[in-house]
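Standup notes
- DV: blocked on the single-chain target, sequence here:
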Amino acid sequence: MIEQLQLTTLRQLTTSVSLARNAAGMEFLVVKRLESEAIISLFGAHVVHFAPAGDKPWLWLSKDAIFDASRGIRGGIPLCWPWFGPAPERVGAGKPQHGFARTMTWQLDGINDLQDATLLHLSLRANDASRAIWPHDFTLELDIRIGDELTLLLNSINTDTSSWRYSGALHTYFETAATEQVHIEGIGAVYADKLQQGKQCEETAFALTGPVDRVYLHPLSQVQLNTGLTDLQLDNHNADSIVVWNPWQHGAAGMADFDNEGWQTMICVETAITAAEGVEVAPDEQHLLGVTIKRKSL
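- DV (later): unblocked, structure below
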């Protein structure tokens, strides 16, 4: 995966973190620790790679992912903000899928190398391009903790003079051994099936046997995911739902940046806010959405 990015190191920032660039001019933070390694694109504040020492990568990245800042990156952990999926009615038509945070360049504000982890702090502030899409002032802050587990905390801060609402997701793509080896627990039984126009359905046990695009409406705060490679636990913070997605063969073939065989070795399990009303954030207030991905506790 690292070779796929074709990165050239620009300079060492700290003991664990270096700044790198690809041929298209995109910049990346490369984190190498004894416990793990990670790569984060400043375009989209996008974690594209995470692998604990001696383990296979936990995150899936399409072999055909596009790294030229022309569109969102297919794989890793895209940040969907200030909405998830198509723009809601309150925003209006003709707006980009999944908002704009994943297709803007973020600022690196700080790095802290600790004994057991590296902390990265990135931010995105309202600008002319964001206001043309969503006419509100905001500051987004993303804290990433990289150790033997991975934590993302996305803080939405209202710097406007009136309230606004947001929804979103930490749209995590996981690497799997094979579709039939995927098992998920803790997502609940009730889901809205987007392949059936949002029809509410119920299923007591999850099995990946075909295309899925589901919004699970009553998940636990802890979700268990067996990828066939690793037993993982997702500790979700302030999510109202979990989205599970795999486009299957036909869906993958319809996406230019999704390699045709990739659907066989991936599953999206997304920490999300999907309620139609979203979350209201008052002026000078903030709201946090987060996830910690770690090995399942024994």
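- Follow-up: The chain has a mean pLDDT of 96.
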